[in-house]
Amino acid sequence: MNLTRTLIDKFGYEEFRMGQEEIIRDVLEGKDVFAMLPTGAGKSLCYQLPAYLGHSPVLIVSPLVSLMEDQVQQLKTKGEKRVLALNSFLDFEKRLTALQNLSSYTFIFASPEILQNNNVKRTLKKVRFSLMVVDEAHCISQWGHDFRTDYLKLGDVRAELGQPPLLALTATATEDVRKDIIAQLNMVDPTLHIHSVDRPNIAIKLERHATLDSKMNSVLEYGKTLQGPGIIYFSSRAIAEQVSIKLSESGVQGVAAYHAGLDSESRLLIQQQFINDELSLICSTNAFGMGINKSNVRYVVHFHPPSNTESYLQEIGRAGRDQEPAIAIQLFTEADERLPISFIETELPERQQISMLLEELRVRAGEHISLDYEKEGIRYKLSETAWRFIIHHLHQKGILLNGIVNTFHYQSLLEDLSNEVERLRKRKLLKWIDFKKWLYDNQCRRKGLLERFDEDVPKIDQCCDYCGLIEEVYMKQGDSTLKEVTAIDWDKELQFMLRVEEKGEE
Amino acid sequence: MIRYLDGLLLFVLHQMKGERTISGAYHLLKGKKSSQTIQDAKLFGLSFLFGMQKNLARGQIEETVSTLYDDGLLEQIDRHTYKVNEKGQDVLNEFLKEHSFPEYLNGWKYHQVSDDFWNRISLYMQALSHSVNSSMNFYPVIREEQAQKWVRTHFPASLEKRKRTAQQLYRELRQVLEALPENHARFFVLRLSGFHRTGLTVEQSCASLDLSYEEGIIVFYGVIHACITHARNDAKSYSIITSFIENKTLPVPLTASTRTTYTMLQKGLSFQQIMEIRRLKKSTIEDHIVEIAINVEAFSIDPFVSKRAQEDILRASRSTNSHRLKTIRDHLENRYGYFEIRLTLCKVGV
């Protein structure tokens, strides 16, 4: 079968990137496939190309609505019309018509939550899927860094859909996480395509500071001198804004802040400006990046440490997708060590919150309760993760059945749940401690990262600050190439946009 | 020179004559859809500013009031009530000379169509600009499903037609924009996306024109409202702009509960009957009626206030130079209730 022909015709690429062709061949043979490809290696092609060769329709499960929408939009931009995104944002009537015409779609994206909806499931069962894809498959594992309880049910969903061949995709999964994914998804004798998490074209630098002030000076200096496009990650909106403003004021062109506090139109515009090289630097919380397809990011700076190695790799992996040299710089101070810990603490439910919830459920035994976070979860001041975590365990223990609360032994359930939370908290803390250790280790940075995935380190130039790094390579060389748009003449601009002749009148 | 938000708030407080708390000013600028806010807007001639600062935080307004007070521009009437003093009026006049409000700004009248209009025009413009410049691959700047669907169904099919449409859209926009201040036109055009660049966010446009966010957003709505006004007055000359507000017939903007009361009134039910059927308090129905009176021009208040009472109340308001219900009621020696006074004042607009 001539895969390259299809690649050129449908995608306009001359050749496959590493790993893609082998994965696609296995998918076409109807095997269960587990593929770990580094970020930016072109994972979505692994199910899109088979679809064009008749392996259609494809069901793609994706954890984030934003990610899903981006993928849908990208397919539509390429001219693909038979794409559907099933998620809770789709309004009821639209969902109804879409479900009635399911068979006319090639790509059906679905959130794991929507797959729990009986109506949706019933309709999906009528479709014979040639392939089921689980994107960001590490979300299925409790041991992963991004655990989603709804992902755990995907094994059952697959069985209900008649066990279509399955492709599990992820960028970062340690050995234990891989095993967990394969087991949870009931994958039969899967072919494994494990590629290195290493991105040899990304140089790695660690930079420790004694004070916040000196770290701040350093980030401003990097913002001024590094050759963009680049992303600087912060764990606080306020600091992201502040740095963005300071950099603009000091004359850096094309800087913008990006975080969940902006309205959706602004977020979309800033994303597009960045992708189109109209901005050179985004100061962002980790809300930015998922699903953003930009190949020429030249640097990623972390102003705060993320809470585990996998998140770190995912975030720096947004640099250098064009395989050209790029650099990742992690800044930190001792005070930063508290951040991930407090993040983990607020994300998980406290014993007292669990007991409050159980006390109320005890009274409501036999009643139907809403599982909606906005309606119920928020009342107990639980985070969304915490709410889902508890609901998931209540389901597993048979205390919640079809939304009805069964009677339970209060004290023992409280102990059980608290223990579960404790286990998860420990896991997360260990992951953070492991990453923190990397921050302080006195050895090759790349070696440290790869060790955690049982990989050996290849010998590369421009490896990391420990092995020696020539940083000038990553600095701005000439003047900015950004287009200046502010000084426009509105009339000429409109004429230009709409391609109207100078006179205007006919 | 004072900040834009200072001047804006000074204006609102001045219009309110010390007869409303700062919460009243806040709700008005935020666009709270309550009877009280809507009445105030009409009563004090502030409808055009309704909802024109949706992102305003309560803290900001409190901070602004205390700055104005510290600068000696306000006189405190009550704990949360301030009146603009003489010095404040001078500062306000200076401010308004520099920053007159956009001519077509009409927050209340267009609050239900402004955002839809913007979604449609910006997406349509992006699509049209790409297609007449022969590149149909673009990432839509508007995600909103309704707008996307609308643009898909209204987009001209042939290239010939697209080119003509582009000409026409250009002419219409130029017609509207060239009558506006130059920087308002520029603000609007900067926000549009085309084949050659992505539109700027409100904040970015503000930065490039050196405007504060508060002023920028008012300038932006001012241009949108200018487009809508022209389209409504002369649909023939502005056929494309008109299409951006089609199917968006301006429904009489009533809050949901008021609408129910209005429907019942139209069916001929009496005040008393509505109260009983809806199990609502008298004061609530009164609020509804005032809201209807403000928004439905043809609605007569005569069944609720006698002609004679209306005349007395208006005369009292003029001679006391006040919109304050209590002042008027006292002046009329309690002959009429608050409801009658309120209804009369808002209907006439004074």
Describe this structure as you would to a colleague:
The complex is a heterodimer of chains A (506) and B (350). Chain A is an alpha/beta fold. Chain A is 40% helix and 13% strand. The longest helix of chain A has 31 residues. By secondary structure, chain B is mainly α. Chain B has 3 domains: 97 residues, Arc Repressor Mutant, subunit A, CATH 1.10.10.10; 131 residues, no CATH class; 93 residues, Arc Repressor Mutant, subunit A. The two termini of chain B are 32 Å apart. The model of chain B has no long low-confidence stretch (mean pLDDT 91). The chains are: A alpha/beta (506), B mainly alpha (350). At the A-B interface, helix 4, helix 11 and helix 18 of A face helix 7, helix 9, helix 10 and helix 11 of B.
- What structural class should be given to the helix and strand makeup of chain A? alpha/beta
Query: What's the number of domains of chain B?
Result: 3
Q: End-to-end distance of chain A, in Å? A: 56 Å
Fraction of residues in helix of chain A: 40-55%
- Over the alpha carbons, how many angstroms does the gyration radius of chain A reach? 24 Å
Biggest β-sheet of chain B: count, sense, barrel? 2 strands, antiparallel
Q: What is the share of helical residues of chain B? A: 55-70%
Task: List low-pLDDT spans of chain B.
Answer: none
Most extensive interface: A-B, 37 and 45 residues
**Number of folding domains of chain A?**
3
Encode the helix/strand succession of chain B as letters: HHHHEEHHHHHHHHHHHHHHH
Q: So, the CATH homologous superfamily of the largest domain in chain A?
A: P-loop containing nucleotide triphosphate hydrolases
Could you list some keywords that capture this structure?
heterodimer; A: 506 residues; alpha/beta; Rossmann fold; 3 domains; seven-stranded parallel β-sheet; six-stranded parallel β-sheet; 18 helices; 15 strands; globular; B: 350 residues; mainly alpha; Arc Repressor Mutant, subunit A; two-stranded antiparallel ribbon; 2 strands; 63% helix
